[in-house]
Predict the structure.
Amino acid sequence: MTAIHDETKIELPLTTAIVNTLHSGMFISLQGALITARDAAHARLQDSHKWGHPLPIVLFDTVIYYVGPSPTPPGHIIGSAGPTTAVRMEPYLEFMLQSGVRGIIGKGALSDTAAELLKKYNAVYFLATGGAAALYAQTITAVEIIAYHDLGAEAIRKITVKSFPCIVAMDAHGGNIFKEGQAAFRQ
C-alpha cells in the first residue's frame, strides 16, 4: 500500500528551527517524547506559575498532546488515546507557549487569536484525527506519569511515540488549513 501524501518525519524535541520548516497542510510523522495534558492539568500548571511555584515539568521545545487516555487494558501500555478538542485548551495557550511549548496536538479548529499566538511564539498546531484513538495508542511505545497523578486520565504523562501521524493545521507563518480549506471551497 502506498501513502496518499508524502509525510515528513520529525524527531522530537520540536525546536524553533524545525518549526520554521513546517507549513500548513504538511503530513507529519512524529517520533520521540510527547507530553500529554488536558484542561485540569493546564489549569494547575498555570495556577502554579501564577502563585510563583516551580512547574513540575520542563516545557521548553515540547509538544503537548491534548489527550486523556482511557484505562489501560491488560497486556497493553496504554488505553485508547485519541485527541481532545483543542479549543478547550485555548484559555491556557499563551501561558504554555510563553513557557516554551513549540507544538500542540488536538482536533478541531482554533480561533484567530490562537493563530496569532502561534505566530508570536513560533509554534505549530498539529491536527490529529478524531475517532482514531486505537490507532494512536498503537504508535505509543512507552508511558510514564510525570505530574499530577491525582488527575487520573488527565495526569501529565510523557509518552514515547513512533510514527505518530498528524497534519500541520496552523503554522508559525500564519498558514491555517481551516481558513485555506474554506477559501478553496468558496472558489
Remarks:
- The first strand starts at residue 7 and ends at 11.
- The chain has a mean pLDDT of 92.
- DSSP finds six helices and seven strands in the chain.
- Residues 80 and 138 are 9 Å apart (CA to CA).
